[in-house]
Amino acid sequence: MNHGRLISGGGWLLRRLCTAAESPAKSPNLYRILSALKKTGGSVSETLDNHVMQGKAIKKRELERCVEELRRYRRFQHALEIIEWMEMRKINFSWDNYAVQLDLVSKTKGVVAAEEFFSGLPTPAKNKYTYGALLNCYCKELMKDKALSHFDKMDELGYVSSLAFNNMMSLYMRSGEPQKVPHLVELMKRRSIPLSSFTYHVWMNACASLGDLDGVERVYEEMKTEDKIGWQTYSNLAAIYVKVKDFEKAEMMLKELEKRVKPRQRDAYHCLLGLYAGTGNLGEVHRVWNSLKSVSPVTNFSYMVMLSTLRRLNDIEGLTKCFKEWEASCVSYDVRLAGVCVSAYLGQNMVEEAALVFEGASRRSKSPLFRIEEMFMLYFLEKRQLDAALRHLEAALSEVKGDEWHLSPEVVGAFLKYYEEETDMDGVDELCKILKAKNFDDSWIKTCINEAKASPETDPRLKEDDPQNYPAQEN
């Protein structure tokens, strides 16, 4: 085969992409092949080129679905490489594809790179999609001045939509300025810009943040008249009532939520588990879990939500049963679930049980379990058992290859705090000695220590409680 014909000009490739037929029964679909690159290595472009050279079709919509799925699972670099391959091969690259590319550039290379990408776009590509994508970048990074200036520019160009308003509202909420949200809502209404369900939810949350529960009810009533209510609305309302400890109203909203849930809407069931946990209703948690298992395939992530919920409610017996059930049936072993279990046991001073889970996870995992090692370090430092903490530190350090892992700022901070409070020794010097004994260079050590000094203390075990801290996982 003349490979030059494949890559020069793109004409032969484009015809192959558009017209060749692929038999899905004979080989894995393209998404499966691309998603496996995380484990197998290799580049996206080589994989796609090989796919084409094998005589298999790749339609544009298929590539776009791959990008959507990879973004969903926070595999941003691979998603960006697909978009770049599409652009390079001139596969009917549309203007809205540039917006997705800009978002992925921001996520993988930072906002400055996204700005440079935007500046380099051809004039027709600087449209409502790419302007909106850049506004989203500014809002996500809480760059308020740039966001406001960019929003004004979009307004001048006639590119402002409900999505742009939603971005600005979210920015104000995350910046601790909920009082600015109602003004934006009124502005949308004056301009006859439709309010989406998301807009109403942010408006509700703004009212709740201002202590205006009557306002929350008014927004809810308006949503009913506009027929904008879905299960997410009741999830949002329940969360508001849980926060103010009005558990009766919260559970009323949860019952309404359940009426609207379809069997395979796992996200809705996950919300129900977390919100019933917020009301302290363990019985309802188990009922919802059993309901989920009866109507939808239960993924690793679903098990992680349930384990985190049971840990939150201190139902160690239920957690142990759930974990064993998952271990016995899982198709792919997810060490994060073991981490939730270890954190639960350590929270109850069940060190032996935590160690057994850790040992089992170590046998089944293909990678070092640095995160779980850190949980043990924090636990033993809290209990003033330095030798045990050091054993876990040394075990973790012995498995480090290259620059794959740094001690978290929380753990470094915990070691420094221990030395400061319990000994006369200089914590930085002592930690440096330990790390240098394992042949870590000064720059690696300085990075760890500087990150610890710059970061607020947060116990990683506490983060395990909240599944929202985890990206979705393929299962």
From TrEMBL:
It is found in: Mitochondrion. One of its GO terms (molecular function) is mRNA binding. Signal peptide: none annotated. One of its GO terms (cellular component) is mitochondrion. Residues 454-466 have a biased composition (Basic and acidic residues). Keywords: Mitochondrion, Repeat, Transit peptide. Gene3D superfamilies: Tetratricopeptide repeat domain. It comes from the Eukaryota. PPR repeats lie at residues 127-161, 196-226. NCBIfam families: PPR. Belongs to the PPR family. P subfamily. This is Pentacotripeptide-repeat region of PRORP domain-containing protein.
